[in-house]
Automatic annotation (TrEMBL):
This is DUF6463 family protein. It comes from Lysobacter korlensis. It comes from the Bacteria. The chain crosses the membrane at residues 14-33, 61-78, 98-123. InterPro entries: DUF6463. The keyword Zinc does not apply.
Length: 147
């Protein structure tokens, strides 16, 4: 695999910031939703969301909070891998982060979903500042066709 033309700084990396947000999500669940975490733990974790339908909502908020953190860590790792290999984030990073951030902020305006938006802007900036040049491999004009 070819070396990237430039490396994305960790401070400007949409991947690194996604991983960081995911880690904070998982680390903070006990402080943000202590009743949910306590209820899941008291139910023995495995099968706890379905065990008692009356407690499904209470347990579900902690579950989804951690699940979002795990998703952000995985998504961020994939973005960072692409940044390291190609010198820019993948094209899908910006719309994915914008869509999830806007959706979450619209439904819960007083939330951390707004943090998806600056990460999306980092991804967009990374895409725009590392466009392939006209003379990049695969962009040669076809001399035979006169193009």
């Amino acid at each position: 695999m070819a070396e990237p033309t430039s490396r994305v700084s960790p401070l400007r990396s949409a991947g690194v910031w996604s991983v960081a947000l995911g880690l904070v999500h998982i680390a903070a669940v006990g402080a943000v939703y202590p009743g949910s975490v306590r209820s899941i733990r008291e139910a023995g974790v495995i099968g706890s969301l379905d065990a008692e339908p009356a407690l499904a909502e209470r347990r579900g908020v902690g579950f989804w909070y951690v699940t979002t953190g795990l998703f952000l860590i995985g998504q961020g790792a994939m973005v960072r891998e692409h940044e390291n290999a190609h010198g820019r984030p993948p094209a899908t990073a910006t719309p994915l982060l914008l869509l999830i951030g806007a959706w979450g902020a619209a439904l819960t305006p007083v939330s951390g979903f707004w943090l998806f938006l600056p990460i999306a802007l980092l991804a967009r900036r990374g895409r725009r500042s590392h466009r392939p040049s006209e003379n990049a491999p695969g962009r040669e004009r076809n001399a035979v066709a006169g193009g």
